[in-house]
Amino acid sequence: xxxxxxxxVLALSMVLCFGIAGSAFAEKLVxxxxxxxxxxxxxxxxxxxxxxxxxxxxxxxxxxxxGIKALVDGFTDxxxxxxxxxxxxINHAMKNNIFPVAHRxxxxxxxxxxxxxxxxxxxxxxxxxxxxxxxxxxxxxxGGDDRKIVIISRDTGSGTYEVWHKKVMKKERISPRAxxxxxxxxxxxxxxxxxxxxxxxxxxxxxxxxxxxxVNGVTASVTTALNxxxxxxxxxxxxxxxxxxxxxxxxxxxxxxxxxxxxxxEEGFVPLYELGR
Length: 277
Fold this sequence. Notes:
This protein has about 280 residues and is an alpha/beta fold. The protein is built from ten helices and eleven strands. The strands form two sheets. Strands 1, 2, 3, 4, 6, 7, 8, 9 and 11 form a nine-stranded mixed β-sheet that branches.
Protein backbone atom coordinates (compact mmCIF):
# COMPACT_ATOMS: atom_id res chain seq x y z
CA UNK A 1 0.00 0.00 0.00
CA UNK A 2 2.81 2.34 0.97
CA UNK A 3 4.72 1.44 -2.19
CA UNK A 4 1.66 2.16 -4.34
CA UNK A 5 1.15 5.54 -2.68
CA UNK A 6 4.85 6.36 -3.12
CA UNK A 7 4.64 5.54 -6.84
CA UNK A 8 1.61 7.83 -7.25
CA VAL A 9 3.43 10.69 -5.52
CA LEU A 10 6.49 10.10 -7.70
CA ALA A 11 4.36 10.10 -10.86
CA LEU A 12 2.61 13.33 -9.83
CA SER A 13 5.96 14.95 -9.04
CA MET A 14 7.27 14.03 -12.50
CA VAL A 15 4.18 15.52 -14.18
CA LEU A 16 4.57 18.74 -12.21
CA CYS A 17 8.30 18.94 -12.91
CA PHE A 18 7.83 18.36 -16.63
CA GLY A 19 5.02 20.94 -16.69
CA ILE A 20 7.14 23.54 -14.94
CA ALA A 21 10.13 22.73 -17.12
CA GLY A 22 7.96 22.94 -20.24
CA SER A 23 6.72 26.43 -19.39
CA ALA A 24 10.22 27.50 -18.34
CA PHE A 25 11.68 26.52 -21.72
CA ALA A 26 8.74 27.80 -23.81
CA GLU A 27 9.42 30.85 -25.96
CA LYS A 28 7.54 33.91 -24.74
CA LEU A 29 6.15 36.72 -26.86
CA VAL A 30 4.78 39.92 -25.33
CA UNK A 31 2.35 42.15 -27.27
CA UNK A 32 0.98 45.45 -25.94
CA UNK A 33 -0.83 48.52 -27.24
CA UNK A 34 -3.85 49.55 -29.28
CA UNK A 35 -7.30 48.39 -28.18
CA UNK A 36 -8.39 48.63 -31.83
CA UNK A 37 -5.84 46.01 -32.88
CA UNK A 38 -6.44 43.97 -29.70
CA UNK A 39 -9.23 41.62 -30.92
CA UNK A 40 -7.25 40.77 -34.06
CA UNK A 41 -4.05 40.18 -32.08
CA UNK A 42 -5.85 38.06 -29.47
CA UNK A 43 -7.44 35.73 -32.03
CA UNK A 44 -4.18 35.52 -34.00
CA UNK A 45 -2.29 34.66 -30.79
CA UNK A 46 -4.80 31.91 -29.93
CA UNK A 47 -4.47 30.32 -33.37
CA UNK A 48 -0.69 30.74 -33.42
CA UNK A 49 -0.25 29.06 -30.02
CA UNK A 50 -2.37 26.11 -31.18
CA UNK A 51 0.05 25.72 -34.09
CA UNK A 52 3.08 26.33 -31.85
CA UNK A 53 2.45 24.90 -28.36
CA UNK A 54 6.04 25.75 -27.39
CA UNK A 55 5.21 29.49 -27.61
CA UNK A 56 3.42 31.51 -24.92
CA UNK A 57 1.95 34.86 -26.00
CA UNK A 58 0.74 37.47 -23.53
CA UNK A 59 -1.37 40.37 -24.82
CA UNK A 60 -2.66 43.56 -23.23
CA UNK A 61 -4.30 46.78 -24.48
CA UNK A 62 -3.99 50.26 -23.04
CA UNK A 63 -3.71 52.27 -26.26
CA UNK A 64 -1.22 52.85 -29.08
CA UNK A 65 0.85 55.34 -27.09
CA UNK A 66 1.33 52.90 -24.22
CA GLY A 67 2.25 50.11 -26.60
CA ILE A 68 4.89 52.18 -28.37
CA LYS A 69 6.26 53.38 -25.01
CA ALA A 70 6.51 49.76 -23.85
CA LEU A 71 8.50 48.92 -27.01
CA VAL A 72 10.78 51.94 -26.52
CA ASP A 73 11.34 51.02 -22.86
CA GLY A 74 12.03 47.37 -23.70
CA PHE A 75 8.90 45.91 -22.06
CA THR A 76 7.26 44.38 -25.13
CA ASP A 77 8.29 42.50 -28.26
CA UNK A 78 5.48 43.90 -30.41
CA UNK A 79 3.62 47.20 -30.05
CA UNK A 80 0.13 47.28 -31.58
CA UNK A 81 -0.76 50.74 -32.91
CA UNK A 82 -3.69 52.23 -34.77
CA UNK A 83 -1.53 55.15 -35.88
CA UNK A 84 2.02 55.67 -37.10
CA UNK A 85 4.80 56.33 -34.61
CA UNK A 86 5.44 60.01 -33.80
CA UNK A 87 8.74 61.80 -34.36
CA UNK A 88 9.23 62.39 -30.62
CA UNK A 89 8.66 58.66 -29.99
CA ILE A 90 11.27 57.79 -32.62
CA ASN A 91 13.74 60.19 -30.99
CA HIS A 92 13.10 58.65 -27.58
CA ALA A 93 13.53 55.17 -29.07
CA MET A 94 16.85 56.04 -30.70
CA LYS A 95 18.19 57.30 -27.36
CA ASN A 96 17.31 53.88 -25.91
CA ASN A 97 18.96 52.05 -28.83
CA ILE A 98 15.55 50.89 -30.01
CA PHE A 99 14.88 51.04 -33.75
CA PRO A 100 11.10 50.79 -34.40
CA VAL A 101 10.04 49.05 -37.60
CA ALA A 102 6.41 49.33 -38.75
CA HIS A 103 4.51 46.33 -40.10
CA ARG A 104 1.11 47.12 -41.59
CA UNK A 105 -1.28 44.32 -40.61
CA UNK A 106 -4.76 45.61 -41.49
CA UNK A 107 -6.84 48.59 -42.60
CA UNK A 108 -9.51 50.18 -40.45
CA UNK A 109 -12.28 52.74 -40.80
CA UNK A 110 -13.19 54.92 -37.83
CA UNK A 111 -16.97 55.14 -37.74
CA UNK A 112 -19.18 57.61 -35.85
CA UNK A 113 -21.81 55.71 -33.87
CA UNK A 114 -25.03 56.63 -32.08
CA UNK A 115 -27.79 54.87 -30.17
CA UNK A 116 -30.06 52.76 -32.45
CA UNK A 117 -33.03 55.05 -31.67
CA UNK A 118 -31.28 58.08 -33.17
CA UNK A 119 -32.91 59.14 -36.49
CA UNK A 120 -29.72 60.63 -37.96
CA UNK A 121 -28.17 58.53 -40.76
CA UNK A 122 -25.40 60.69 -42.20
CA UNK A 123 -23.08 63.46 -41.01
CA UNK A 124 -20.55 65.49 -42.93
CA UNK A 125 -17.01 66.02 -41.70
CA UNK A 126 -17.75 69.69 -40.85
CA UNK A 127 -20.82 68.61 -38.86
CA UNK A 128 -18.80 66.04 -36.93
CA UNK A 129 -16.16 68.63 -36.19
CA UNK A 130 -18.79 71.09 -34.94
CA UNK A 131 -20.35 68.41 -32.72
CA UNK A 132 -16.99 67.58 -31.15
CA UNK A 133 -16.24 71.27 -30.65
CA UNK A 134 -19.67 71.60 -28.95
CA UNK A 135 -20.75 74.20 -31.52
CA UNK A 136 -23.67 71.93 -32.40
CA UNK A 137 -25.22 70.86 -29.08
CA UNK A 138 -28.64 69.43 -29.93
CA UNK A 139 -29.64 66.68 -32.35
CA UNK A 140 -32.55 68.82 -33.63
CA UNK A 141 -29.98 71.13 -35.27
CA UNK A 142 -29.15 68.18 -37.52
CA GLY A 143 -32.72 67.06 -38.20
CA GLY A 144 -32.95 64.71 -35.25
CA ASP A 145 -34.94 64.72 -32.03
CA ASP A 146 -34.79 67.48 -29.44
CA ARG A 147 -31.99 65.93 -27.37
CA LYS A 148 -28.77 67.47 -26.09
CA ILE A 149 -25.76 65.74 -27.62
CA VAL A 150 -23.48 63.80 -25.29
CA ILE A 151 -19.96 63.70 -26.78
CA ILE A 152 -17.97 60.50 -26.31
CA SER A 153 -14.33 60.44 -27.40
CA ARG A 154 -11.26 58.27 -26.96
CA ASP A 155 -8.55 59.48 -24.61
CA THR A 156 -5.59 61.43 -26.01
CA GLY A 157 -3.20 58.46 -25.73
CA SER A 158 -5.27 56.49 -28.22
CA GLY A 159 -4.26 56.05 -31.85
CA THR A 160 -7.94 56.21 -32.76
CA TYR A 161 -8.12 59.64 -31.10
CA GLU A 162 -5.01 60.76 -33.02
CA VAL A 163 -6.55 59.85 -36.38
CA TRP A 164 -9.91 61.44 -35.46
CA HIS A 165 -8.06 64.56 -34.29
CA LYS A 166 -6.25 64.80 -37.63
CA LYS A 167 -8.91 63.75 -40.15
CA VAL A 168 -12.08 65.07 -38.48
CA MET A 169 -10.96 67.83 -36.12
CA LYS A 170 -8.24 69.11 -38.50
CA LYS A 171 -5.96 69.22 -35.44
CA GLU A 172 -8.29 71.54 -33.52
CA ARG A 173 -9.19 70.74 -29.92
CA ILE A 174 -12.13 68.60 -28.86
CA SER A 175 -14.51 70.30 -26.45
CA PRO A 176 -13.83 69.88 -22.70
CA ARG A 177 -17.46 68.69 -22.54
CA ALA A 178 -16.42 65.42 -24.19
CA UNK A 179 -16.14 62.27 -22.10
CA UNK A 180 -12.72 60.68 -22.76
CA UNK A 181 -12.72 56.88 -22.60
CA UNK A 182 -9.84 54.42 -22.62
CA UNK A 183 -10.99 51.83 -25.16
CA UNK A 184 -13.25 51.05 -28.10
CA UNK A 185 -15.20 48.72 -25.82
CA UNK A 186 -15.83 51.52 -23.34
CA UNK A 187 -17.13 53.75 -26.14
CA UNK A 188 -19.45 50.96 -27.31
CA UNK A 189 -20.93 50.57 -23.83
CA UNK A 190 -21.28 54.35 -23.30
CA UNK A 191 -23.14 54.91 -26.58
CA UNK A 192 -25.32 51.81 -26.18
CA UNK A 193 -26.41 53.09 -22.80
CA UNK A 194 -27.22 56.70 -23.77
CA UNK A 195 -29.81 57.77 -26.37
CA UNK A 196 -28.19 61.22 -26.56
CA UNK A 197 -24.63 60.08 -27.21
CA UNK A 198 -22.28 60.03 -30.18
CA UNK A 199 -18.93 58.28 -30.26
CA UNK A 200 -16.49 56.75 -32.74
CA UNK A 201 -15.01 53.25 -32.97
CA UNK A 202 -13.01 51.06 -35.32
CA UNK A 203 -15.08 49.24 -37.93
CA UNK A 204 -14.45 45.92 -36.19
CA UNK A 205 -16.52 47.10 -33.22
CA UNK A 206 -19.73 47.70 -35.18
CA UNK A 207 -22.77 45.49 -34.86
CA UNK A 208 -22.79 45.57 -31.06
CA UNK A 209 -26.04 47.40 -30.43
CA UNK A 210 -24.83 50.56 -32.18
CA UNK A 211 -26.02 52.51 -35.19
CA UNK A 212 -23.20 53.40 -37.58
CA UNK A 213 -23.46 56.73 -39.40
CA UNK A 214 -22.34 57.44 -42.95
CA VAL A 215 -19.76 60.20 -43.36
CA ASN A 216 -20.11 62.58 -46.32
CA GLY A 217 -22.72 60.16 -47.68
CA VAL A 218 -20.28 57.21 -47.70
CA THR A 219 -20.85 54.02 -45.72
CA ALA A 220 -17.79 52.52 -44.03
CA SER A 221 -17.02 49.12 -45.57
CA VAL A 222 -14.16 46.96 -46.81
CA THR A 223 -14.58 48.42 -50.31
CA THR A 224 -14.76 52.10 -49.30
CA ALA A 225 -11.85 51.74 -46.86
CA LEU A 226 -9.65 50.11 -49.51
CA ASN A 227 -10.51 52.48 -52.35
CA UNK A 228 -10.17 55.58 -50.20
CA UNK A 229 -13.71 56.91 -50.64
CA UNK A 230 -14.48 56.58 -46.93
CA UNK A 231 -12.86 59.70 -45.44
CA UNK A 232 -11.78 58.36 -42.02
CA UNK A 233 -9.75 55.23 -42.85
CA UNK A 234 -6.28 54.33 -41.61
CA UNK A 235 -3.78 51.43 -41.54
CA UNK A 236 -3.20 49.36 -38.40
CA UNK A 237 0.36 48.49 -37.37
CA UNK A 238 2.51 46.20 -35.34
CA UNK A 239 5.89 47.72 -34.43
CA UNK A 240 9.02 45.73 -33.61
CA UNK A 241 12.51 46.67 -32.44
CA UNK A 242 14.47 46.42 -35.67
CA UNK A 243 13.70 43.84 -38.32
CA UNK A 244 12.13 40.95 -36.38
CA UNK A 245 13.83 37.62 -35.83
CA UNK A 246 12.83 34.25 -34.45
CA UNK A 247 9.34 33.89 -33.00
CA UNK A 248 8.62 37.63 -33.44
CA UNK A 249 9.34 37.38 -37.17
CA UNK A 250 7.31 34.19 -37.46
CA UNK A 251 4.29 35.76 -35.74
CA UNK A 252 4.43 38.89 -37.94
CA UNK A 253 4.64 36.68 -41.04
CA UNK A 254 1.63 34.71 -39.75
CA UNK A 255 -0.24 37.98 -39.17
CA UNK A 256 0.28 39.32 -42.71
CA UNK A 257 -0.14 35.90 -44.34
CA UNK A 258 -3.44 34.39 -45.51
CA UNK A 259 -4.34 32.87 -42.11
CA UNK A 260 -3.71 36.12 -40.26
CA UNK A 261 -5.55 38.20 -42.85
CA UNK A 262 -8.50 35.82 -42.63
CA UNK A 263 -8.62 36.63 -38.90
CA UNK A 264 -8.53 40.35 -39.75
CA UNK A 265 -11.58 39.89 -41.95
CA GLU A 266 -13.41 37.67 -39.43
CA GLU A 267 -12.91 40.32 -36.73
CA GLY A 268 -14.61 42.91 -38.95
CA PHE A 269 -11.55 44.81 -40.15
CA VAL A 270 -10.17 45.19 -43.68
CA PRO A 271 -7.46 42.74 -44.85
CA LEU A 272 -4.44 44.05 -46.72
CA TYR A 273 -5.31 42.15 -49.89
CA GLU A 274 -8.15 40.18 -51.42
CA LEU A 275 -8.41 36.72 -49.94
CA GLY A 276 -9.18 33.61 -51.96
CA ARG A 277 -12.45 31.84 -51.34
